[in-house]
């Protein structure tokens, strides 16, 4: 799977986990040069506290377009520290 934003591959992996229709990529598969940590957080009742990244490609920012759970509930162990996307990021088969 590939995550693409602004015509650029920002993550790529053959090892994604799909939860609620979102592909969660291993943290080591994201291209870190495109990501900056955000102060935004949200809470999912069954997964835990989400942390966000802002994605920047060619001077364009997509604020809080990626999220991950550094700590998860027992039910969500499979996505701990995996990164998922929204806000116009396309996730497509490689």
Automatic annotation (TrEMBL):
Positions of the DUF427 domain: 1-87
Name recorded for this polypeptide: DUF427 domain-containing protein
Origin organism lineage: Bacteria, Pseudomonadati, Bacteroidota, Flavobacteriia, Flavobacteriales
Pfam family, one: NTP_transf_9
Cleavable signal peptide: none
InterPro entries recorded: DUF427 (IPR007361), DUF427_sf (IPR038694)
């Amino acid at each position: 799977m590939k995550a693409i934003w602004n015509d650029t591959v920002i993550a790529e992996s053959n090892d994604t986990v799909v939860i609620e229709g979102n592909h969660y990529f291993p943290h080591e598969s994201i291209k870190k040069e495109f990501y900056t940590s955000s102060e935004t957080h949200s809470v999912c009742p069954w997964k835990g506290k989400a942390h966000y990244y802002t994605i920047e490609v060619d001077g364009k920012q997509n604020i809080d377009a990626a999220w991950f759970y550094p700590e998860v509930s027992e039910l969500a162990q499979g996505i701990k520290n995996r990164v998922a996307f929204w806000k116009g990021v396309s996730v497509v088969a490689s």
